[in-house]
């Protein structure tokens, strides 16, 4: 059992609604688990549980890990602490009571890629976001909102964006449902409370009428203003519930013996001390892709060696980057480092819309082999990939590509109907050839082998788009032994001697994957964007940002920077907090890598 600080002990003693604030690694999560254990032993009635609500699955797995670390918490008590995401908790409420807010009784989730497909007709009617006037943006948003509601109420397809808003309406409107929830969960812990959106807050505000709320927050780790976090959120909670407030302040248990937290705090003001910060390294690199990635790989290899030599089995090294694009670039470079450096095994948290839709293309090819309209349907799935892979911000290029394929298919079918051969220069010729080659693949009934066989044909065929799909699908790791997708496909084959339901099984597997909470926390080398690192901890962290593009010595572009464009602009509060969150994820060491000739502005001391 660890020695709790006085402030942590106060958290355990107090009754009623609570607000626990404190800096990174100050022990908010940990004390909330001990608190939950106490409540579970002393207060809960049979059948009741404590709900720990978090934002993302990966954070949830960190909380599970923290619970497991707490040896003073018995197995029985652990079972009564239920850790869940807002998404998954809200979905459970909607499934049971959604009819109260106009939803049909039978509902399915419209996953982000399928939502993107459903909204692509609206989106393709507008120019790209940066070129829209405020009026046009509002018009586009209103059309999207209306379509989302139509899909939910008429077709029972509910997208994530609607969850919190509808649940808030439902809970404010129905004391009965609130009581049902509070009877089950009389205590609810709200993790990362500073980042709750207005809708999430409205929903938990309603539950707080009958359940006791314990909010954990660090106002200076608020990094989601762009999707609805609000600096006033803690005040909203205080005004509504008059909680007892506990400040764990600058205690740092995560990286004891280092100056990592100290450096993180200094980043907020830009005032740095002269003497080095223990546990913080800085590495400058040359501003060109080859040297930049070579420097990164060198740092990764050094860090990995240190961690392996530490003898700690589940070591973790996170490479945190500012943008999703950089996540991909770094991952590609670790797969094929320079010279004869062997690939560096890692996992990358890339956006899943593209990979999921690419998996649907493979599933389609497993399922639909050679019936009459098979090629038409195949082109349709391909177009869905282009409509959906950009998620909420599809590129014009992808939307145009889909339109081009559809137009080519119409011409193609016209020729077929007239008994003429399709035009030799049709964009579909290569697609057709690959489709035929896939239909000729003899399937074996081993889902893994069959999946790879189809992927290989797409990869090696003459159609550049299908080759791209094959590359995307490599990011899907659902076919590992024992996974739901693999088992589902095997069962399908056993039942029908073919993959009759491959598409449905694949879609379902991704929904399950989204809600699964038992995932292990990341270990080994992991790459993710900085926002995704929130609430996590790793042994070592490398923060790696992009570099400027220069023409004749002048900077002409500066994408992928921690501060957009890398120029000073006002207080830069969000950027400072974001970098602080990333820096303080490490237990032992954080290495910050920035281009030598255009160092990150947040690292340059502010004048007195
Ligand atoms: N009093 C304590 N003594 C020793 N170790 C502690 C103490 N409190 C917490 N810890 C450990 O310190 C680490 C960080 O704690 P925790 O994750 O609870 O911090 P946090 O405040 O939730 O951090 P963040 O806001 O950065 O996510 C954990 O490994 C936890 O087990």
From TrEMBL:
Pfam family name, one: UvrD-helicase
SUPFAM superfamilies hit by this protein: P-loop containing nucleoside triphosphate hydrolases (SSF52540)
GO BP terms: recombinational repair
A cellular component term, taken from the record's GO annotations: cytosol
Alphabetically ordered keywords of this record: ATP-binding, Helicase, Hydrolase, Nucleotide-binding
UvrD-like helicase ATP-binding domain mapped to chain residues: 1-256
Positions of ATP binding: 22-29
Alphabetical list of Gene3D superfamilies matching this protein: P-loop containing nucleotide triphosphate hydrolases
Single Gene Ontology MF annotation: DNA binding
Protein name: ATP-dependent helicase
Organism listed in the record: Novosphingobium olei
């Amino acid at each position: 059992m660890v020695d709790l600080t006085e402030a942590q002990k106060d958290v355990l003693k107090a009754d009623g609604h609570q607000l626990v604030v404190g800096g990174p690694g100050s022990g908010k999560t940990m004390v909330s688990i001990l608190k939950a254990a106490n409540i579970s032993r002393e207060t809960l009635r049979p059948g009741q549980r404590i709900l720990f609500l978090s934002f993302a699955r990966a954070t949830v797995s960190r909380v599970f890990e923290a619970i497991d670390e707490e040896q003073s918490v018995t197995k029985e008590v652990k079972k009564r602490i239920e850790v869940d995401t807002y998404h998954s908790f809200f979905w459970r409420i909607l499934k049971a009571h959604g009819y109260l807010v106009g939803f049909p009784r039978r509902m399915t989730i419209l996953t982000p890629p399928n939502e993107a497909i459903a909204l692509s007709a609206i989106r393709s009617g507008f120019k790209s976001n940066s070129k829209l006037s405020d009026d046009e943006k509002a018009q586009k948003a209103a059309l999207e909102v209306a379509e989302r509601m139509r899909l939910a109420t008429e077709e029972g397809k509910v997208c994530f964006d609607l969850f919190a808003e509808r649940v808030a309406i439902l809970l404010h409107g129905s004391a009965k449902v609130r009581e049902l929830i509070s009877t089950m969960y009389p205590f609810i812990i709200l993790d990362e409370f500073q980042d709750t959106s207005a809708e999430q807050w409205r929903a938990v505000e309603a539950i707080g009428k009958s359940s006791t709320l314990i909010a954990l927050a660090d106002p200076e780790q608020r990094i989601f203003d762009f999707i609805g976090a609000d600096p006033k959120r803690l005040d909203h909670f205080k005004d509504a519930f008059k909680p007892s407030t506990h400040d764990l302040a600058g205690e740092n248990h995560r990286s004891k013996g280092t100056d990592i937290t100290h450096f993180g705090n200094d980043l907020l003001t830009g005032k740095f001390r002269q003497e080095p910060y223990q546990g913080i390294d800085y590495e400058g690199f040359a501003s060109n892709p080859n040297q930049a990635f070579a420097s990164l790989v060198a740092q990764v290899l050094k860090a990995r060696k240190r961690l392996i030599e530490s003898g700690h089995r589940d070591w973790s090294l996170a490479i945190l980057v500012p943008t999703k694009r950089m996540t991909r670039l770094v991952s590609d470079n670790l797969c094929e480092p320079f010279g004869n450096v062997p690939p560096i095994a890692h996992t990358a948290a890339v956006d899943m819309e593209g990979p999921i839709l690419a998996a649907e293309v493979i599933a389609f090819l497993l399922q639909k082999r050679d019936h009459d309209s098979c090629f038409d349907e195949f082109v349709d799935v391909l177009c869905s990939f282009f409509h959906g892979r950009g998620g909420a911000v599809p590129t014009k290029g992808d939307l145009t590509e889909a339109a081009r394929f559809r137009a080519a298919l119409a011409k193609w079918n016209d020729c077929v109907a007239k008994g003429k051969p399709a035009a030799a220069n049709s964009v579909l010729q290569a697609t057709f050839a690959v489709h035929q080659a896939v239909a000729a693949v003899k399937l074996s009934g081993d889902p893994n082998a069959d999946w790879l066989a189809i992927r290989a044909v797409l990869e090696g065929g003459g159609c550049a788009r299908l080759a791209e799909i094959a590359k995307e699908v490599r990011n899907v790791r659902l076919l590992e032994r024992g996974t739901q997708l693999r088992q589902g496909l095997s069962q399908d084959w056993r039942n029908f001697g073919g993959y009759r339901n491959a598409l449905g099984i694949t879609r379902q597997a991704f929904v399950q994957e989204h809600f699964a909470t038992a995932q292990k926390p990341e270990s080994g080398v992991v790459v993710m964007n900085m926002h995704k690192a929130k609430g996590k901890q790793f042994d070592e962290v490398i923060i790696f940002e992009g570099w400027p593009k220069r023409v004749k010595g002048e900077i002409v572009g500066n994408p992928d920077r921690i501060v957009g464009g890398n120029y000073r602009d006002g207080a830069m509060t969000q950027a400072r907090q974001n970098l602080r969150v990333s820096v303080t994820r490490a237990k032992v060491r954080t290495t910050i890598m920035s281009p030598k000739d255009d160092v990150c502005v947040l690292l340059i001391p502010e004048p007195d």
